[in-house]
Write a structure and sequence with these properties.
Radius of gyration: 22 Å
Distance between the termini: 34 Å
Largest sheet: 4 strands, mixed
Bound molecules: zinc ion
Oligomer: single chain
Helix content: 40-55%
């Protein structure tokens, strides 16, 4: 498959497969409790225009479970939130947002593309998938997804870094002596903040307020992934190089806001 050319996309794809097969029986089990409706009516009633396809699939497969997909989950959970799912999810409405986010991830993974997906984006989405699997007590599936995430985050093998010159950007002088930049707990006069995201080999500097940082994974992960905020670009840059042990690459993230 050409997709293995794109390891991040493949990882997202694999995580979504696990998610799909864990969520389907959970949702059907829950919807069997809808009063006064059989499972087909219960599902079809909340799918809007897609209800027709569901009925077609149901006739073909004979299984409600196999006839719903990731696109349907948020509509069903939303549609039966008060009756059923609020109790399943401890009334935590963030679950609905998570399901929409996962649906969006599914669309990304399904689309043909000319390049791999952004590793940070995939990481955050895979983390949301794992979180949600935990919330439905699918701990095996959750762990499988976490393994996918951890593989994603392992630094790529070191390649001839000794012979390849580092691609440093726009910094004429050597960087300042290494010291951990102070965490600015004092109120910063500037609204501009900088964050550093690193996978151990490569670092990206994010300019805050940063969409990526704001939407970083809800699960605690090893601290070495996000650093900051820093009040100056220079501090962030120093940290970025430090995090790669001066062997990797430092770039600026795009589309931070
Ligand atoms: Zn960013």
């Amino acid at each position: 498959m050409t997709e293995s050319l794109y390891p991040n996309k493949q990882a997202l794809h694999d995580a979504l497969d696990i998610f799909r097969y864990a969520m389907r029986p959970f949702i059907v089990r829950c919807l069997n409790r809808v009063k006064g409706k059989n499972i087909e009516e219960a599902i079809k009633g909340k799918l809007g225009g897609r209800g027709k396809y569901f009925s077609d699939d149901l006739r073909r497969t004979g299984s409600a479970e196999e006839s719903i997909d990731i696109n349907d989950f948020p509509k069903l959970v939303d549609g039966y939130w008060n009756d059923i799912f609020s109790q399943e999810f401890w009334n935590d409405e963030i679950v609905k947002n998570m399901l929409w986010m996962i649906r969006d991830a599914r669309n990304k993974a399904a689309h043909p593309s000319q390049s791999d997906l952004d590793i940070e984006d995939v990481r955050s989405r895979v983390t949301v998938i794992a979180d949600l699997l935990g919330r439905i007590n699918e701990s095996d599936s959750k762990q499988a997804v976490e393994r996918i995430r951890d593989r994603l985050s392992s630094p790529p093998p070191l390649r001839d870094t000794t012979t390849r010159p580092l691609t440093r950007f726009t910094e004429p002088a050597s960087r300042p002596p290494q010291q951990d930049p102070p965490v600015p707990s004092a109120p910063s006069p500037s609204r501009e903040k900088f964050y550093v995201y690193t996978d151990g080999s490569n670092s990206k500097i994010h300019k805050g307020p940063c969409y990526h940082y704001e939407n970083r994974k809800p699960d605690p992960l090893p601290d070495n992934w996000w650093h900051g905020p820093y009040s100056s670009e220079a501090e962030a840059e120093a940290k970025a190089w430090d995090a790669t042990q001066n062997r990797g690459r430092v770039t600026f993230a795009e589309r931070c806001r």
